[in-house]
């Protein structure tokens, strides 16, 4: 995708940037199953405000940005999760229509604090869900619980994935762990159908453009979109029209209801994430057959 492909062209500069340090991939051992009586993950408002102001709980990958995330109903003893784009999957771009569910993984990343300092290395053992169809997401299960990561990272709490559709006009922040930079943006409507090369996404988030504080670049793929009012994740940054072309790789276009196309060079987009909460069981497992589930099925 446009945001990821630009990473390749920026690698020379990235090699001298701390945010682009190569990561070591290693196998992760499974953690014990969560206890049924665990207490909810802390949602201390002051802590969340500090996180929203910086890079706390973001995760730097070798090619993209990511974040430490939880569902609204996650428990301290649940396995922690890492969220990034589908096109940031370690196996490369997923084909149109392809969906991965419960796929083994040994992905690692560097967990950052508010100042962008690495405080821990996190390791995945499973891709819970990944696709580039309908949306553009990869959700990993990590090999440690939320409580374990918090105890070894200076008290970092995971960012909460909102259970609500984002609101047009909302002020948002996009913290990129790859570049250790936070972009200030605003939502400028939603795109029913967004197309880029062979991939199609729905109900995509359009950023206000032009906006000098919101020109996301290569490496910002996978950054969480944080609603400034709720301090929850309302989407995930994923693409931009680079050359002003229509519907080609690196040049997403908006497909209007009448079939006409709209495309603007420099226009950036993100994808919805509340879809995950529409597919959860009572034990926080993803059930793609659940009534009302919005995630793309295999």
Name some characteristics of this structure:
298 residues; mainly beta; Thrombin, subunit H; 6-stranded antiparallel beta barrel; 6-stranded antiparallel β-barrel; 4 helices; 16 strands; 35% strand; globular
Short overview:
The chain has 298 residues and is mainly beta.
Task: Describe the overall structure.
- It is a single chain.
- With 298 residues, this protein is mostly beta strands.
- It has one domain (1-23, 42-298): Thrombin, subunit H (Beta Barrel), CATH 2.40.10.
- It has four helices and 16 strands.
- Strands 1-2-3-7-6-5 form a six-stranded antiparallel β-barrel.
- The longest helix is centred in the first third of the chain and has 9 residues, at 45-53.
- The protein is globular, with a radius of gyration of 18 Å.
Topology:
Blueprint: H1 2-9, H2 11-14, H3 45-53, E1 58-60, E2 65-70, E3 79-84, E4 99-104, E5 108-112, E6 118-131, E7 137-145, H4 146-152, E8 159-160, E9 171-176, E10 181-196, E11 199-207, E12 224-227, E13 233-240, E14 253-255, E15 261-262, E16 268-272
Parallel strand pairs: 2-8
Antiparallel strand pairs: 1-2, 1-5, 2-3, 3-7, 4-6, 5-6, 6-7, 9-10, 9-12, 10-11, 10-14, 11-16, 12-13, 13-16, 14-15
